[in-house]
Input
Amino acid sequence: MTAATHSPLFSQGFPQVPETADAVLDGLDPEQREVATALSGPVCVLAGAGTGKTRAITHRIAYGVRSGILQPASVLAVTFTNRAAGEMRGRLRQLGAGGVQARTFHSAALRQLQYFWPKAVGGEMPRLLDRKVQVVAEAAARCRIRLDRNELRDVTAEIEWAKVTQTVPEDYPAAAAKAGREAPRDTAEIARVYGMYEQLKRERGVIDFEDVLLLTVGVLQDRHDIAETVRRQYQHFVVDEYQDVSPLQQRLLELWLGERDTLCVVGDASQTIYSFTGATPDHLLNFRTRHPHATVIKLVRDYRSTPQVVHLANGLLSQARGRAAEHRLELVSQRGPGPEPTYAEYADEPAEAEGTARRVRELIASGVPASEIAVLYRINAQSEVYEQALADAGVPYQLRGAERFFERPEVREAGLLLRGAARAGGHGDAQLADAEDLPAQVRAVLGTRGWTPQAPAGSGAVRDRWESLAALVRLAEDFARARPTATLADLVAELDERAAAQHAPTVEGVTLASLHAAKGLEWDAVFLVGLTEGMLPITYARTDEQVEEERRLLYVGVTRARVHLTLSWALSRAPGGRPGRRPTRFLTGLRPGTTAARAGHAAAPAPGRGGIERGVRRKRGHARCRVCGRTLTDAGEIKLMRCEDCPSELDEALYERLRDWRAEQARLLGQPAFCVFTDKTLLAIAEAVPGTESELACISGVGGRKLDRFGSDVLALCARTEPSSDVSPDTSEESPEK
Output
């Protein structure tokens, strides 16, 4: 999903196109206006989080175009994600500058490479590789190097890093050592796999995404006539998120520019969080050195976050070290006061997830839309326990990075139906005959595919489908308010443009995302979870530079919040585990009861400051394996009450009956299967074969609420009798099970 923001594009509103060039500048603050009117010479915009950098640069482009200083076709705006490029195109369209090219580096390079390949090389351009990891796996096999799934992913990432830093296979070991890379395997082995990977690509006549940049650089370097053609086409360049430029992307930018300096770059060294991909803030920090006469403008007015959130963000950076920290920006909130950030400590990770889900429900009950809430974590593996907790609490959620909105089957189907209805003009359609306006027409069409005025109970596939259709209905309502005379055909055209820009309407559901995936997004309420030493900073961050990037990652997380911010950690991984974890060092001196000199001892909160909320501590003894007696710490092993490697007494027939029963329950409830019981819980039941409610209640994953809803069915299955088939969605407002 795309989180809503307060920008014109990402709100559901449809602002009118400014009538004049000067009207484009309306509403900009003095620094943003300075950016918008600085149309000549090199310009460097240092923009802090939430300061309206995208607003400033899109208004700069639009003002230049509308005033006749810039020709739309001569401007190339580049950024790093399709979502960001789509956002930029949408904003420019709203400002009356729709002819400007806004693309990612890869997209712009690919377009040029496809166009010039017949002239520069001859013949057809090689096919673009769909799945790099498969070829890397084959390359490793040919080198007789065995890689597990995680190693395969990490070796693929190392190859990508080598290519964007323009490192050839034989130079990789030395380059990795110089850069302090934590290689997943011996660097000589990775170099062999890298070399074989390149050989396989040549044999098959395919290229990867990094090759797109490398080949474009090669063509522009070797063919001056082609380089001049590109330079005649593009004469003004804007680069967003300039702190994330890799050496290869910087080289491509230099070739696009030639001897000119018609360049505007925008970035924030304090948000450099992608160095593992080859990104470096050095190009941003050295901009004045390369361009001594550059105009430098700082944006520090934070329109996103309350003073309380901004105070914590500034505090995080005040403790930072290194070159990026020397150029940090002190943000100044432009919003009214809000609640202090909350700090929550829990006994274990499941308790942390349940506590977070409980707080999420409270926020939703208080009026905060689910789409304006996010749970952010360091690594994707942390999501599962929060998915389970939110599902148990009856809270809809969406995983960031999942299927794009306009690629969902129900959205594609809805688009076809709306297009058909628009072509027919309502003639002969009884459902549309009584529709008084555009929103009513859309509701009538989508009502045939599952949209209803009231949301279905629970979560899962049925709710997800409804949320997608409801987002289209809300979009139609906003579109009609902005353009009262709009027709169904106008709405279909708007949907087509949004799909091309990947500008999705807001979907109601809490966002679950990694901190890296949250970059560029914002929400009213943000929960930063799992903030312990070893997770943030991550264990493999050993050098000072790596640790500082982890600090910046937390800074990015904090600055995603507009109003509500909760930071939490768990003292142990699993229930009954040793409470040996410590909160992240980055909060020392910032959270109540700590000072920079003495960390880790939480005291009563200071007056007027956010306090530490003590999570529910599970009073459980140490869980031990019922086979060998070893103390268990892994959550999955605790569910089974045995080590993964210890022999199982599984009743396989019972396990299959339980799985079939769970699938039917999930279908009737319209929820994912794991919302009924997880696989581990079903295994534990099939191994223990409980005969009474008390025996069933002792199994981890069977809480009081699930015991009430499913207990009789499960016990019947264990007794080899038929369970009840009476199932109804759970619509109670009780707290999630403990």
